Protein 1
Amino acid sequence: MKKVAILAAPGFEEIELMAPLDILRRLNMAVVLAGVQSDKVVSTHEVTVSTDTMLDKLHADKLDALILPGGAGSWVLRDTPEVIHLVKKMHEAGKLVAAYPAQDVYRELNEAGAHIVKDENVVLDGNMLTANGPGAAMLFGYSIGEYLGEDLQVAQLKEQMCYTGL
Amino acid sequence: MKKVAILAAPGFEEIELMAPLDILRRLNMAVVLAGVQSDKVVSTHEVTVSTDTMLDKLHADKLDALILPGGAGSWVLRDTPEVIHLVKKMHEAGKLVAAYPAQDVYRELNEAGAHIVKDENVVLDGNMLTANGPGAAMLFGYSIGEYLGEDLQVAQLKEQMCYTGL
């Protein structure tokens, strides 16, 4: 069973966090929602969610993919050394890092050598998948499912979920 | 300021609840998340959210729109007399009722005289708006915003949110 962690930082964007969580749990993956600063987290638009675990309980060697939602929470992720450490460990192990980078993080990523295209909805570059906003959140979730080998189930799921996007 | 209530019943579909909440709060509407059975509610795919208020605190005369998310929670909504009472009051007052009906509820609605088209993503019939699943959730949210008079802001928001759907 594929194991995926989604980081929940204060100010996370609701659709960006929920769409991949919903889709990957429908694909029967083991998805944990991990609190970055606390186990109850308030989103950008004031929804409080309870997490399943905490950031310090995550280990790259036990994960197949790591998801970083955007919104105001993306600054918290960027400024938390433990998050950066985990992202680096995932990256070194060739495991999927899937993120919605904030505007200036795109620049930093590109300067660091990643090929991130801001105008594309979802871009895969090696083991780094990026999406440009909540409008791309379902496609982002499906793309993670495909990356983790569930192409056939993803195709069925798009139909079940009445998804009419790309 | 437009006032909108979203009902959170156990087993609600995450994207269906979060997308309109996110979009309508971005449009600066007063959106309350109301618990149907409890003030902490577990979604279809095991996410626990805290609500802002409870169903029994809602009154049709203080609302402009009522939203009923789908998923397993839609059966709970259908089987809760206070929900049916509130929907009827909203309907009698000509106010928007926006829902993702479950399969057999479509049939019941059509038998009751509503014009619900299961194959269309989002359908407006009088003051009743329906969507056919999570894939339509963002369009559903934008459609509610437009119904409540925010056409221009909705157009801007679609762009901001990188929405590429219909």
Note: Chain A has one domain: 3-160.
Protein 2
Amino acid sequence: MQDPSDSSQPLSPPRGMRDFYPEEMALRTFIFDAWRNATRAHGFAMYDSCVVESLDLLKRKSGEEIVNQIYAFADKSGRELALRPEMTPTLARMVAARQGSLPFPLKWAAIGQCFRYERMSRGRKREHYQWNLDIIGEQSVSAEAEVLAAAARALRLMGLGDSDFRIRFSSRSLLSEILRRLEIAPEQQPAVFLALDKRGKIPDETVATQLRDAGLSREQAARVIDAMRISSIDEASALTAGDSKAVQELRDFAACLEAHGLGDCAGFDISVIRGLAYYTGIVFEGFDSTGDFRAIFGGGRYDNLLAQVGGRPATGVGLGFGDVVVAEILAERGTLPSQHAVADIAVGFMTEAERIPATRLAAEFRAENASVDAGLAPEKAKAFFSRASRSGCGRAIYIGPDDVASGKCRVKNMADRTETDRRIPR
Amino acid sequence: MQDPSDSSQPLSPPRGMRDFYPEEMALRTFIFDAWRNATRAHGFAMYDSCVVESLDLLKRKSGEEIVNQIYAFADKSGRELALRPEMTPTLARMVAARQGSLPFPLKWAAIGQCFRYERMSRGRKREHYQWNLDIIGEQSVSAEAEVLAAAARALRLMGLGDSDFRIRFSSRSLLSEILRRLEIAPEQQPAVFLALDKRGKIPDETVATQLRDAGLSREQAARVIDAMRISSIDEASALTAGDSKAVQELRDFAACLEAHGLGDCAGFDISVIRGLAYYTGIVFEGFDSTGDFRAIFGGGRYDNLLAQVGGRPATGVGLGFGDVVVAEILAERGTLPSQHAVADIAVGFMTEAERIPATRLAAEFRAENASVDAGLAPEKAKAFFSRASRSGCGRAIYIGPDDVASGKCRVKNMADRTETDRRIPR
């Protein structure tokens, strides 16, 4: 059905897509810069690929829910293509294609636009940008800690303090160990994860019903829900065998987070499940401390990703961090960056006769690596200085006939209103 | 027809799309950084929108040739969408939507991925990135000069000198004036532009035949082709009325380019036509001096763009600068940026016991704003230093049990092999 708003607003972007006017673009650049700087601070290499992927690749890897939400289309040769819903299948494809020659462990990062066709609800968009961090080929939990430390650095670079966000982590293998001890078969576990992931959103009785539907006995269901009430790694340990590998991993992981300076803002939380996705080990999510927003980022360890697209098995850790939720949080906190000045220096001129001298002066400043917003037409002094002030330029120069006659002009410091002389180049 | 290479290379990107592995991404980042820095040096504001546009918008603006090459598809609501072939229709839409409130003249820039479905020939791709500079609402040729000066700055930031590139410019209105003097009707002119745009690619006799097909007499056709032999603004002046507005504009434009320091690398060239596009005034193209490559950038003045998408008429100037040709030129010249170091500092460790101290040290360096490539697993000293050397890190620190015992480690300067001591945080 054609959206009725399309014809009434022929100048709006397609439904669910975003325009970035300069003020919105300044915020996006602020977020992307934090991502890029955190990528570099943690020694990840940037990669990218096209937003168009083959539908077959996405089907090989993604769950059914995601496939139903893919923007798919055929090109003029009948090739089945799609707008990627996430970066991970592409990452797996690129790494698998060069698995024999790339140096592992790989630490790769990307900022990619991703699309998902969903019903529109209160401002939910159909595209977003996601920063992805992946480490492939490293068994130890230093990999999980490294991607989380990079994500935390990005938040700090956006102005959030350590008390402003919380990292919650759990372990799929811990949960598997607990389920095994309750004699729940491996093939039942995906359905159990799915039911448990809904806890908090639906009543525990409904979760219990879904667990029964998955084939669990009444007692098993009760004990699973009971297990979800634990709140520490020590309590988790009591539910597993004494030599639990998952518990040891969680302890090592907590120690690594502490060493990264994240001890105070990260904590074990068995309710972190991360949906039906391909995670096999530690899983984690980042939230703002108020708890008023959806997750800022999430991720975990996967073991089967490369094999799913045709590569050899390799363990990996991934983290995805979208631009939408963090932008909402920054807006709510009022810590958005102040309007970015378009340039360091504004140059204006009074009459046609000063056009060329003003252009020469602007070129000279630029050759000195200053950024210059150069007037393109004669304007009145008042209009020029008001524009220069609004645009946040640090210095402003207005050239009139007298300046050209004398061969020099005044450079006005917009902060303290002081003026200095400058020669006008000939 | 399905491309046979698709099944034999299931790990390649869709046909015509590019993967950016870290080394290719480093080049792309180098080019994008030059574009962004030139954008800022010239006081343009960055904007963006989604790569998905409504097909209707693209049809309203683009020529038939482009519409045939659009990647179009319908979403699950039957909405007709497309991957944009260029940024300009989107720019026109966004400006028209806020035409009443935006401050003119606008100076806007974007780096956008654009798609075009073409037959694949010798490495031709179906997507590329294009830097777009537009100034809307300014009549004077300072606008044309400003976008060209910004493009030239980007080339300099990429390492090209003034003798390495040439800007060629002409004027659609000059050509119109000349055609009017030859009594060629305005409605014949698009066909004439189209034929003249092929000069150099096909023999002049074939051009003449196409001009006859457009309704020109044999004498008109000959005189048009003759007019295309002029090589200076003065010669152009002789073919127009004494008070030619187009000639005066070209002279003013040349003076502006001179003031921007571009006098030596820019010249009048009547053969610059810029296809059938929407240009109405000055048009220009940038080439590398060898002449071995397609145009690096191109653009010109348009007057009808906003009106075409439903806005009020406004004059504007636009320039598009793609990433593909300039990358070929940089590769040919051997002036590609050297492999970008992943980080400033590499940190490695010998045994499990140093994992946490090494992690603490990496976190401490990062808190001091250094970028750190931190080892994730124990490794041998030789392997660590060889990796650190390959990755281009300036400093390398390898922590063993003795270092942890003494509470300090050695920071090795990879350039001069000198070492300094550093405390290991506890």
Note: Residues 152 and 326 of chain B are 12 Å apart (CA to CA).
